[in-house]
Design brief:
The structure is a single chain. This protein is of the alpha+beta class. It has one domain: Aminopeptidase (3-Layer(aba) Sandwich). The protein contains 4 helices and 7 strands. Strands 1-2-3-4-5-7-6 form a 7-stranded mixed beta sheet. A hairpin with a 6-residue loop joins strand 3 and strand 4. The protein is globular and about 40 Å long.
Length: 166
Amino acid sequence: MHPQFSAPTLLTPEDISAAFEIFQSAYKDMDVPADEFAWFKRDLEGSFDPAQNYRLVFFKMMDKDKIIAFAAIGKSGFMRGSWELRWGTTRPAYQKQGLMSALTDHRIAYAAEHSPNIPGVIHICARSPNLYLKKGFTHIYTRGPENRAHYLVRYLNEASRDNETP
């Protein structure tokens, strides 16, 4: 990663319009479901609404004073210690420079910090699974063929798992 890029920090409500612009530019040439932007908008705006039960935590990376990438993490409701990674997006001009790798490492560390000694999983549905495979995720299945989203999981706090069988 280039040294001029900032470490991941929290995305703020003031960053919403920049996040929308980045998302639109990154996804404009991709074959994505028609409601993808509306879904992203709902997740992003809802994450800053205290009345919402489910909110994601968004992190951003900067190049000087410009947001160049962002990604989210949220607690998954189906199991204690379960997290989901969402909305990893990089400005097209900054892709392939390690930004999503840094944001993924940051989100994994965030989940571990907020679930100490709780065995769980982090899961993601990603169109491009290679980064996540390099980060220790296991490919479970591919959904498609319309969007070929890969479902991957990674254990969290694996040393805390009870390995005894009943």
